[in-house]
Amino acid sequence: MPLPNGYSINTAASDDSEPLIDNDAVPPQCCSTRFNLAILMFFGFSVVYGLRVNLSVAMVAMVNSTDPESSKNSSIIHACPPPSGAENASDVLQQPDGIPQYPWDSETQGWLLGAFFFGYLCTQIPGGYLAGHYGGSIFLGLGVLGTAGLTLLTPLAASWGSYWLFALRALEGFGEGVTFPAMMAMWARWAPPLERSRLMTLSGSGASFGAFLALPLTGYICEMLGWPAVFYICGGAGCFWAVFWFILVSDDPRTHRRISKEERDYIINSLGPQGTGHGWSMPLLSMLLSVPLWAIIVTQMCSNWAYYTLLTSLPTYMDNILHFDLKSNGFLSALPYLGALLFSVTSGVVADILIEKKVFSVTVVRKLFTLIGLLLPSAFLVAVSYSGCNHILTVTFLTLSTTSGGISASGVFINQMDIAPRYAGFLLGITNTFGTIPGVVAPIATGYFTKDHTLAGWKKVFWVAAGINVGGALFYTLLGSGEIQPWAVTEEERADTDRKRSSSVSSQIIT
Questions:
Q1: What are the phi and psi torsion angles at 490 (to 5°)?
Q2: Helix ranges, 225-290 (H)
Q3: pLDDT reported for residue 78
Q4: Cα separation, 154 vs 494, whole angstroms
């Protein structure tokens, strides 16, 4: 299925011609192999985020808040009254007989919640590089399977002490660090350019679904079965998913056993040379000096500060400040991620339509969705800081903040694929490495600001997150780009463009 003018959408077109896809020749997306891959990735990242956030809720059950050693460094003053109807509820979560609890103070809890990201930082770049060269399926599958296996050891590590649990969580992050770069490397070979936004936001929105599912289920399991069951169930789910992944998935449409010829040809022809793996050598200096790449890096760092602050610390806020019971805590902490999932998937469809109908350029679409997806959450976070002890307003604004943040999924978070498709996995490794730094620092900073469990401390947390978010939005609006960068163009594409330009000049001279 050759494309008009003989080159793909990704190819840098000459000035007098523009590559297009005949819509009548596009295989339907519903039930296609590429759509099925997105669904399987969706569930994979649901597991990934379940493994990541389960400790955030389980921590409430793991800590013995009545322990005298723990109480020495903690304020016993309630910043807010309990919600209506819960005045007589016990502040202490009773675990089933035989389930241990630990005397970890606020600072220790902050370090344990941030431990995952110490390991997560280490494997982003090498994972993206290897996935881009060899293909991403093995790295994504092993990343989830390895993290799930380690999660099963969480109760044992906790019984040995907080240092052992810190080390285990760091190892889990080490294994999971390859998953998102591997996903990007796979979509570089699977996602037609006019379907990038919807396929990538659908697969990536599994993270929001995982958080939405894991947070309330964790609270329920902690109360019914005890907190160790959380890690056994989540770890088992990851191992179960890996079986289907290794059976059904292929790195490349060329090697997939069940894909139709029409779909395979459509994907291969629409991607062109950009849809193949990169070699061992990389244009590292050009990447280092690339302003659009630095725009992605800085903006993802800013956006992730607010995201990781809420992801890791929202259950603590619901417990220490608003005093919701654990089941309510888990549900209310999860509610924002359901909204984020819906907004993320919807934004992907809308972004693709805007690009396909040529309403806006790719650059304008990415900037528009990033700007809206960062400024709205910032406004709602500021509103949270002024909600005081109003439980309804606080939960509403927190939900709206994370929900509206899903809009940015079609902006900066898939921009690596626009500026350098062949190197997208490696670039995501770079941007996610920087973007993970807030995952390490934000929980620790939150623990420092909120050590006295006061509204004033949490107000600082929300204001800092909002301010950093706004800075990232402005930075990307000024410096971001959706155009493929010169250093990412292959020699084949460059020669093809030069040949067409020469042919066009010759035709003009003859006429």
A1: -80, 160
A2: 227-248, 261-271, 284-288
A3: 60
A4: 52
Tokens read off for 443: 């929980």
**Selection from 201, 191, 196 nearest residue 347 by Cα:** 201
Q: Which of 14-23, 55-64, 392-401, 447-456 has the highest mean pLDDT?
A: 392-401
What is the per-residue DSSP string for 133-167?
Answer: HH-SHHHHHHHHHHHHHHHTTHHHHHHH-HHHHHH
Q: Is the pLDDT of residue 84 over 90?
A: no
Percent of the chain having pLDDT more than 70? 80
- The amino acid sitting at 76 is I
Per 3-state DSSP, the chain is made up of helix, strand and coil in percentages (nearest 5) of 75, 0, 25
184: its two tokens: 């990007």
pLDDT (average), residues 289-303: 93
Q: What length is written for the chain?
A: 511
pLDDT in tens, 303-351: 989 888 876 677 677 777 777 665 666 677 677 888 888 899 899 999 9
Degrees, nearest 5: CA angle 53-351-37: 55
Can you tell me the distance from the alpha carbon of 144 to that of 236, in angstroms, rounded to the nearest whole number?
11
For residue 97, give both structure tokens. Answer: 């007989």
* DSSP states along 268-280: HHHHGGGGS---S
Task: Report which of 186, 234, 226 is spatially closest to residue 47, judged by C-alpha positions.
Answer: 234
Give one word for 202, left, alpha or beta, with left for phi > 0 and alpha for psi -120 to 50: alpha
**Which residue has tokens 């003009």?**
508
323 or 42, which is more confident: 42
Amino acid symbol at 319: D
Cα–Cα dist 268/249, whole Å: 17
Classified as helix, coil or strand, 102 is strand
Q: What is the 3-state secondary structure (H, E, C) of 169-184?
A: HHHHHHHHCCHHHHHH
Burial of residue 77, with CB atoms counted within 10 A of its CB: 0-12 exposed, 13-18 middle, 19 or more buried? exposed
Sign of the dihedral through C-alpha 150, 55, 330, 204: negative
